[in-house]
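In this section we walk through a basic example: taking a raw amino acid sequence and producing a predicted 3D structure, encoded as discrete structure tokens. The instruction is simple. Fold the sequence below.
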Amino acid sequence: MVFVARGEIFAASARGGGVASRVTRSLAREGQIEWAPDSKRIVYMSERDDVQHLFLYDFTASTETQLTKDAKGDDAPRFSPDGQMLAFVRDDKTLVIMDVASKAERVVASGYISASPRNIAWSSDSKWVAYLGLSNKSFRNAYIVPAAGGESRPVTAIPNANTNTLSWSPDGSFIVFNTS
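The resulting token sequence is shown next.
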């Protein structure tokens, strides 16, 4: 398991317990930890450059790699189910898909995107990303977009105010979320 204590990331065995190992060593705040599906890597946000960037830590190689370096902040990292791609929000305005191996990025949606890991969800086949964004009337609704790029489209059209926690069904046939 991994956790944040005093702004740093630590890892410990979930089975045997014991002393936690320190993963990060920086003066900046880290958080928003996301496990890769292979359970060998994590991605997380760090404010090392006075702006939030994403980093990858590989437990098998004990190495850290900076994934993003844009002047705008990055939030809400989510691994695709196949572990090959990463979805995240840049500057609360764009939904970006990154190929983890090459670090190649593509913007798949823009507008106001809700920058919370709970508000981005991958379909089980890694072909679609659902996200929460603001409609043209400032209501928060669910949208889907192909991970390969293409047109983003709304899948809800109701006056949602406090929509949160978006999830795909295991077979990818529907999306659930809570709202008030």
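Looking at the output, two observations stand out. The mean pLDDT is 90. The two ends are 33 Å apart (CA to CA). In the next section we compare this with other chains.
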